[in-house]
Amino acid sequence: MLGMLAAAFVIGVAVAIPPGAVIISGGQRAITHGFWSAFNFFIGVLVADAFYALLVYFGLSTLFKDSLAFKLILWVLGGAWLCWLGLSAIRTRVEFNTAAEPSPISDSRWKVIRDGLLITLFNPLTIISWIALAGNFFETLWRPEWPARESVGLLAIIAMLVGTQTWALGVAGVLSAIRRMISPRVLHWVSVVSGIFLIIYGLSGWWSAVNLLLKPV
Length: 217
Prior knowledge:
The protein is mainly alpha-helical. The protein has one domain (2-214). The chain is 82% helix and 0% strand. The protein has helices at residues 2-16, 21-33, 35-57, 61-65, 68-91, 96-100, 106-121, 124-139, 149-178, 184-214.
């Protein structure tokens, strides 16, 4: 059992490691607004990750993966959301006082959670990552000496999600710790560069949607 949970935890870390739009956006929040802003953002990410991980576990992910309409929705809405977050990052204002507050105001907290949820939910790479890693874990890497997948599979999902959050919050913690060592001007340009990358990710999503529509049936 312990070996299974450790393996699932490592799979979760592997899902989170690639520096895609989610990590860039969460890192940008950590370095400009502090750890708790990034923490709230990754709560939303966790909800979306849990949704896709459960789809993989119950074998429903291929229905979405093979659906043209679903792919188009992800690329178009995901691209729009990434572009919006990129523009917001470019316009952001560095707030050192945010890190010192005991808790963010309610409206701000839920807005940040929403951002994390949507950026992950509409990111096609999220479901691809879960299918490639978690799907392979359940289908081919599950060892005979482990308990039956049907009885402890949900525990494996939880271990994977703990792995994704451990990596994400670790990155956020490091970035928020060094933010006071960097001048506000540099922090501003870090946010601008992060925003540009998010916009590039968004535009690439739209380009993928166009290619999908033009692809011969």
